[in-house]
Amino acid sequence: MGIGVAGSYLMARLHNSEHTVVGYERMTKERHDSICAWGTIRPLLEEFCKKTGRNFSDFMIHDGKNMHVRMNNNVKFDIKLKGLCTYDKLALIKDFVKDSEVIYGNPPPIEKLKEEYDMIVDCTGFHRVYLPKLKEDFFLPTYEYKIEYEEKVPYDDFYIEPFPGMSGYFWYFPLGKRWAHVGAGDYNKQHIVATDNFLKKHGGKVIKTKGRPIRLATPDRCKPYYSGKVVGVGESIGTVYALLGEGIIPSMQCVEIFLENMHDFEAYEKAVEKHYKIYAKVFNFVRAKIHKDFSLLKSLPDFVAIFRYMKKHEDRFGMKIKIADLIKVARA
User: pTM of whole model > 0.70?
Assistant: First the structure.
């Protein structure tokens, strides 16, 4: 249920398996789209695509070299990139399901689905349509333009501006020589203002406008992961890295965890808890900043744990991780 990043990849991985798999997407085929910027990590997407017989280079757009960062206190610095790229996210989603049965438009009610299928996988992302509602959610509203420039683009590479108190950030993701995704997500709801201000300053023609919430509540806060025949995969169970607002890689990793444990939901729950354990520390760090309850001294153990995790997994995050850069972000 839901043909986004997680749902489409799961369909591709299950294609030609011993299972009969049907996908449902609430949007019509013509209106089916992919919300949020198309940034991901090239080496990991290459491996995921190989597992489905696809070549990721067919979908890649921009291979990043530097992330330009401007803090709200006007501190500027660059982060060296090692794999962060943009790709045609919607084209890959469509390619993942091109050989599978997908039913577009309003899906049938849950009662009918339970009668017809042995298992229902909720990949509906933020909406979490088929799982019980969360007791306490935490999310950011986001807003984005796809912009076409007639001549020179504003930036030659990735560019971000974190908002005060780390309540979110503005982003500029390049999509080739003349296009970019420009948008923002902000807990304090200044995301539309920031995006429109950038458009006024740098110009460009708006090709598409998109907006949706993104869940920052982490898997430890998104239980239950399953209920009866229904099991959640991806953002429906909180697979977004709160510090970056990044969910593509975590959601595809969640698909892999599900495939290893799809016949044992209890084992799946334990594997998810183990894999995403650090996400809870990241969420606590970000939430404390947003709610102005942050103390670097009090948060030092979590801060160090986050740094060590990201440093150890630089290839997964697609960038060089320096503690000095994280301190700049923490102090802003």
Answer: yes
